[in-house]
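FORM 7B: Structural annotation worksheet

SECTION A. Query
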Amino acid sequence: MTTVVVEADGGSRGNPGPAGYGAVVFDADRRTVLAERSESIGIATNNVAEYRGLIAGLTAARELGADAVDVRMDSKLVVEQMSGRWKIKHPDMIPLAARARELAAGFGRVEFTWIPRMQNAYADRLANEAMDAAAAGVVGVVDPVVPVDPVAVEAPTTAPAENTAPGWTGAVGSPTRFLLLRHGQTPLSVERRYSGRGNPQLTDLGRAQAEAAANRIGERGGVAAIVSSPLDRARATAAAAGRALDLPVAVHDGLTETDFGAWEGLTFREAADRDPDLHRAWLGDTSVRPPQGESFDEVNARIAKVRDELIREYPGRTVLLVSHVTPIKTMLQFALDAGPSLLYRLHLDLASLSIAEFFADGGSSVRLVNDTSHL
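SECTION B. Predicted structure
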């Protein structure tokens, strides 16, 4: 049985925007390139480009006479849908997935494996060349290579930089972009009470806010993963986005809200009356804890770990984080390299959207804060 390895990638600059894909076929040891495919497909979404890359790779494998194919992609969506674990709901994806399955059925064995982007460097390079062509207005095959004699190569282990021209900030490369969505309204937010580790449900308005935010993010697209706080109000908001994006929701305990301890459920005035000196100190010192609660410094350390973990897991990708006021403010504080006063001065509305980016070279930026235009 002749086994080959297909690695494919696709992308869009703008989502939708100038799009292209790349695919490479290796021998079973992944030491020799048997074929390459790269094409600019004009204006399309990331997911369309990813599927087009898969189809091109499978087509090339069939032309080479392969009996078995190991497909490796950094698109979790495509891998999970082709493996049958995720449903395909988006109308643009259905015919592409059907074509990919038709091609896959022609092999004795096809296995799909998700790999980190840095392990998909060859296909990533081809896809970026295709996107460059699309951005220049060129649509079609980009320098196709189908070697008559196999070409021995040292398989790359690191991804080439994307969008490598630095902006005015000097940041280089493709950032990990966090869409920061606050949950919808709950009874405690209506009454303006401290709502930390308590678990109030969304109100009817809160559910409508979640759906409105989800529709906006669904139309935007380009999201690689959804990660939510474990609290019900965030998970319900994230579930709406999951339906809009046709993505599962992962839960990360680190994204939970501050533990307000004995002040949970109290209004500002009630907490100030209960512990006047402590409450006054808490308002000006991020190291101070509410009674039996958590300080903002402790939240800061917790969110820093979440940020670093997700950047490692989704380098150069867009991730939707559904969380609460303090974690979102803290993430924005990191991106702005701002002091702790930001926590006290920045206002975030319910179901608001903010965007922070973190680059591999340590740079960061904030693109959006407290946007509620979808409500």
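SECTION C. Observations
Residues 58 and 103 are 6 Å apart (CA to CA). The longest helix spans residues 46-63.

SECTION D. Sign-off
Analyst initials: ____
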